[in-house]
Amino acid sequence: MVKVAVLGATGYAGTELVRLLADHPGVELVFLSSESQAGSKFSQVHPQFEGLVDTRLQSLQVEAIPEGVKVVFCALPHGRSAPVVPGLLQRGFKVIDLSADFRLHPPALYPRWYGWEHPAPGLLRSSVYGLPEINASAVSRARLVANPGCFPTGAILPLAPLAAERLVDWDSVIIDAKTGVSGAGRTPRPGFHFPDCSDNFKAYRVGNHQHTPEIEQELGRLAGGEVARVTFVPHLVPMIRGILSTVYVKMPGRSLEGLYDLYEDFYRDSIFVRVCRERLPETRLVRGSNYCDLALRVDERAGRLIIISCIDNLIKGASGQAVQNMNLMFGYLQEEGLTQVSF
Amino acid sequence: MVKVAVLGATGYAGTELVRLLADHPGVELVFLSSESQAGSKFSQVHPQFEGLVDTRLQSLQVEAIPEGVKVVFCALPHGRSAPVVPGLLQRGFKVIDLSADFRLHPPALYPRWYGWEHPAPGLLRSSVYGLPEINASAVSRARLVANPGCFPTGAILPLAPLAAERLVDWDSVIIDAKTGVSGAGRTPRPGFHFPDCSDNFKAYRVGNHQHTPEIEQELGRLAGGEVARVTFVPHLVPMIRGILSTVYVKMPGRSLEGLYDLYEDFYRDSIFVRVCRERLPETRLVRGSNYCDLALRVDERAGRLIIISCIDNLIKGASGQAVQNMNLMFGYLQEEGLTQVSF
Amino acid sequence: MVKVAVLGATGYAGTELVRLLADHPGVELVFLSSESQAGSKFSQVHPQFEGLVDTRLQSLQVEAIPEGVKVVFCALPHGRSAPVVPGLLQRGFKVIDLSADFRLHPPALYPRWYGWEHPAPGLLRSSVYGLPEINASAVSRARLVANPGCFPTGAILPLAPLAAERLVDWDSVIIDAKTGVSGAGRTPRPGFHFPDCSDNFKAYRVGNHQHTPEIEQELGRLAGGEVARVTFVPHLVPMIRGILSTVYVKMPGRSLEGLYDLYEDFYRDSIFVRVCRERLPETRLVRGSNYCDLALRVDERAGRLIIISCIDNLIKGASGQAVQNMNLMFGYLQEEGLTQVSF
Amino acid sequence: MVKVAVLGATGYAGTELVRLLADHPGVELVFLSSESQAGSKFSQVHPQFEGLVDTRLQSLQVEAIPEGVKVVFCALPHGRSAPVVPGLLQRGFKVIDLSADFRLHPPALYPRWYGWEHPAPGLLRSSVYGLPEINASAVSRARLVANPGCFPTGAILPLAPLAAERLVDWDSVIIDAKTGVSGAGRTPRPGFHFPDCSDNFKAYRVGNHQHTPEIEQELGRLAGGEVARVTFVPHLVPMIRGILSTVYVKMPGRSLEGLYDLYEDFYRDSIFVRVCRERLPETRLVRGSNYCDLALRVDERAGRLIIISCIDNLIKGASGQAVQNMNLMFGYLQEEGLTQVSF
Q: Is any Cβ of chain C less than 8 angstroms from the Cβ of D108?
């Protein structure tokens, strides 16, 4: 039984973590923190947990985390993890951080893309990017896992097999991504107010979203050090969950059949990637599950490959992936606690 | 007072036509047909028109259209207009056809993209593509107007100023389009059944949508005969109305400022195109209106221009545009009957 | 041309007022105020009005309203109108107030239901309840019109014909009301955040909503001074607009046919009430329009009459009704500027 | 390991059954039928089950069900179970029928409310109404369980404690129910077509819904044979899942506190009923779970008790309840396979 703490337990990602971990046969939830709701029970904030998770929420103090905890999940807002994680590691906890704070290796990227200086740049070298499909063995040995962003997960998985074979023309890559509204977090803001958000569709942060360097870093690494470059444009869909990414890339010199073989081979051991030959992915088919569905199509006339990927932004794009990483770190089956089928 | 007939009045486009025409100060609605609902009142099929449009629906017989009618709107399904339009023209009516049946000039494109031989290929030469922003004077003299498709409207307007200046690298053009569900028409089908369509997002007809040649034909013509080529991928958004298109093209050798000047100049007389310098378009801001909103952004790192366009698929993408064409054909102000603000 | 001012122009009701008034042939919009957005153009806050209403928003100072204004619409939050209206009347403006501040006659009801002492109790005697279907002649002579609430409009109209005939058993009246989310206003709050509000349904303020005394006051007045009493329970529907009310009342000693005749007779001159004999009302059929649709059904086994009413909460439930009142006050046709059909 | 068959496996209720049963530790799924999709794999019809439930769908022939099956779930349309169930029982299978075909005891109710003569009236005496909260011991011994309808589940549970104490004034009971669209089944029809169903709210079958006699039968039985009578009005909410029922009844001669005690006592052993003292139920808080949430409120002025109940129509209202019944019939813990928390 692995004793576990969750920091930032009441946000969307934190809540999904609690839901998955509460049902995980190898986990005991022993500490939940919330900055805004400390003192309340978790089930008072999220009544669907009444009688199931009535743990009292605590304020975030590293020293309050009980001895015996083996791993701490940080589901804090971006920029709030970096100051906390060093203390967690010093106390000997393994850490799975769901924020962006330990994903980028060059410290200089933080001021540029996130607007703040990194307070613990030394840790950026040792953190492991927690995308199990491309990084399983490093994750299994890691003390600090940087859990990928939702958009990067949906963008890297469809391109990874090509990148690993150095088949990508980096001048040609466009990632047109569409996300459900839970991706924006649990704080009410005008753009996510039901009457203005429902029955509406829009693009945002066109061409300068902060997830871009994360995507490029990991794809470049997969491609053996090539300088990866992508155009990334996110859009907001009036749905609760899900990310569908439409990825455009110059057709590599292979047939569609050959590419499908490549993808199936690359993901042979990846239980959570489904390469779809017949059907096209839809977000509802992965809702609530840890799957990433992928399909390939060719625009022959334009010489272009089109890859469609689908994930649940809160599961494979955040909390499910974090649990998958934990499973690797503690020797559980990768799918332990993650077998829920979408509905 | 122009006397008007609408064929196929009970579908989504037909109903919007009736709504707009019933409120148009220069129009008298004298004949409405419906294949499935002949014999009923229009307001029995669409009760929001009770007391306003109680006209009895007739079956589609060309000879039943009264003398004195000046223009016939065909809002019939694709493939159903082509057999009817020759008879309408013989009776001396002007025709505005909302189907795809007279949009493509080479007859050979119909078997390839639509799956049927064109029964009146001779008319394809004389039909006028009814996109007023690029074709106003031809429309004003036309007897047969082929009203553009909703996707082509949202795809051509963002590219037209570049095409007209021959600034487009046709190897680089991608149109990633997202449409509301009314674009699929009024017939219930599994993919549009609320429980499977709500809270869901998907791509469809990836890279082979039948609107592709229409887009290429008109952009090529604008570019003085260049062979235009685009990758076009449509997606389905869980909203009722609206199309947002994200258009990617290699950055022409101009500054963003210069491009904005070019767009404003090109659309100086186009009352229904709003070139947005500050804000990004959202479908709700054009819902129910005849506007097309456009914004330009640059991905400097990738050398790529990104153009966002938004229309209401049933108004500027269908019925509003048809009324705009009628206004041109009969000497009304282009915006007559089309000044409704979105809500 | 009636010169008009709108206070609180950027909230949902204010924005709808501006939209309707901008298109009204007898109105000139000369003053718009906004507490939070003063200094911006109206069209910067609501870009769908670009080029149409670019008026600069002003802060709310009574003395800044230009001479020549004939009527001021107050679309301020509840409790904010009461301190302002006396000054407006002193300057000689007619006032149509969309808040609840002048709807209840006994001043004592304000502390009990709204939580504040009324600052101008003397005006409560002279304000006219602006429901044109029951109060047209008083409205036409009024200087201060208290525009009804959205729920009261949807609750009074289905019961008014019975009340006027004293056919209501007041022990039996239940109003189960369901509203779209725009009824909660434009300020983002957790209960209206898209991910928590979409795909969800709930009741709120069960049995103690502040609209209850307004409903009872007007129904009692219609019933010639009977003490009206209703159970009122509102619910939140994941839709943008619309209120549907299901009203239960003990079957009066009349046949359904007789009751339909009574309703048609009562509303003979009420252009905006549609008594539906065949169909049941749906909110989409009144969306964006000023109609109230009504239908009657009988549960024979239980001896109960069930009345369904539907309105658009922002039009007939707020801004459309305010314009209708203005039309009465200035001698326009009641439907002037209000003929938009739902879509 | 209980071997199980599901007839009608591809409809919404059948699919949820398969999802729950596939994850149930004591169940082996050995036979799935589908009238329309026989020959396909289950996972071809519902791709979210790829790699998880690839069972081939069979046509519905009783003799094709393998020996060794212990229980057959019938998730067939209303009227299709009655002809099949006798043969299933003859083969010695226990049967849990999700249709209405064995819920009503007097055969004469079928022609009146469903429009057909019952082909196996003898079984109506021996079938057990499968609402475990009021009928657990009979269910545990039953050979034929009539699984309750979704509306009756949401209507009986909020009234059962009052009925059992004979505290209900049957002249006063109104059940105003609101359901998500999945309640209408998986077949596309105009009223459930996304563009007409989204952003819309309506009532239907007002006062004569076929679930009424089922509600009255079970409440009457609970009340020791009183003649129960309710007014039942269903409404359609633009959401996928969930039923919220607002139940009105004359205040019994007890305090609210006393009533809460009564409810908590009545449901002391009912793990899936949550009596909520503080919060009001919302459908999202039971989505995907087998819970029924209940809250009580009083309208003091009108002397009326208002009870709010919430269920997921496909889980507690159909498939989850069926699994709960199976657990009782085979000696499993009632909650086995049903512990999923809503999300």
A: no
Question: How far apart, in whole angstroms, are the C-alpha atoms of residue D49 and residue A291?
Answer: 11
Residue among B192, C202, B200, C201 at smallest CA distance from D180? C201
Best to test chain C binding among A12, A150, A194, A198 (most C CBs inside 10 Å): A194
Q: Does A50 touch chain D (CB under 8 A)?
A: yes
pLDDT tens digits for range D173-232: 999 999 999 999 999 999 999 999 999 999 999 988 899 999 999 999 999 999 999 999
**Confidence band of B188 (pLDDT split at 50, 70, 90):** very high
Is B140 within 8 Å of B151 (Cβ atoms)? no
The catalytic site residues of C sit at 150
Res D94: pLDDT: 98
Q: How far is C339 from chain B (nearest CA, A)?
A: 9
Q: Is D40 on the interface with A (CB under 8 A)?
A: no
CA angle, residues C22, C28, C34, in degrees to nearest 5: 70
What DSSP designation does C198 have?
Answer: T
Highest CATH level, class, for A2-126: alpha beta
pLDDT in tens, D127-167: 999 999 999 999 999 999 999 999 999 999 999 999 999 99
Tell if the CB–CB gap between D279 and A16 is shorter than 8 Å. Answer: no
For C59-68, the CB contacts below 8 A with 24+ separation are C59/C33, C59/C34, C59/C35, C60/C7, C60/C8, C60/C33, C60/C35, C60/C84, C62/C87, C62/C88, C62/C91, C63/C91, C64/C31, C65/C5, C65/C31, C65/C91, C65/C93, C66/C3, C66/C5, C66/C30, C66/C31, C68/C3, C68/C30
| Interface contact C234, partner D, CB < 8 A | no
pLDDT, residue C65, reads 97
- Measure Cα distances from A189 to A184, B343, C29, C193, C195 in Å: 9, 20, 30, 8, 12
Asked if C199 and D241 come within 8 Å (Cβ–Cβ), the reply is: yes
Q: Is the pLDDT of residue A207 over 90?
A: no
ipTM reported for the complex, 2 dp: 0.97
**Within D106-149, where are the H helices?**
109, 123-126, 132-141
Beta-carbon separation of B202 and A297 below 8 A: no
- Helix D320-329 with D12-22: angle, nearest 10 deg: 50
Q: What is the mean pLDDT of residues C181-206?
A: 97
Label residues D142-155 b or e (16+ Cβ within 10 Å = b). Answer: bbbbbbbbbbbbbb
Of C23, C285, C343, the CB nearest to B47: C285
Comparing alpha-carbon positions, the chain D residue that sits nearest to B240 is D195
Q: H-type helices in B68-149, by residue range?
A: 85-90, 109-113, 123-126, 132-141
Answer whether C341 sits within 8 Å of B50, measured CB to CB: no
Which chain D residues are within 8 Å of B187, Cβ to Cβ?
A: 193
Q: Is the pLDDT of residue B123 over 90?
A: yes
Q: What is the pTM of this model?
A: 0.97
Does domain B150-313 fall under CATH 3.60.10.10? My reply is: no
Q: What is the pLDDT of residues A6-57, one digit of tens each?
A: 999 999 999 999 999 999 999 999 999 999 999 999 999 999 999 999 999 9
**Mean pLDDT computed over every residue of chain B:** 97
Chain B contact for C49, CB < 8 A?
yes
> pLDDT over 90 for what percent of chain A?
99
Neighbours of A4 (CB within 10 A): 26
Contact flag C248-D246 (C-beta cutoff 8 Å)? no
Q: Hey, where are the domains in chain D? A: 2-126, 150-313
Instruction: Report the pLDDT averaged over residues B314-333.
Output: 98
**What value does the mean pLDDT take over residues A87-110?**
97
What's the rounded mean pLDDT across residues C254-268? 98
Q: Is B332 on the interface with C (CB under 8 A)?
A: no
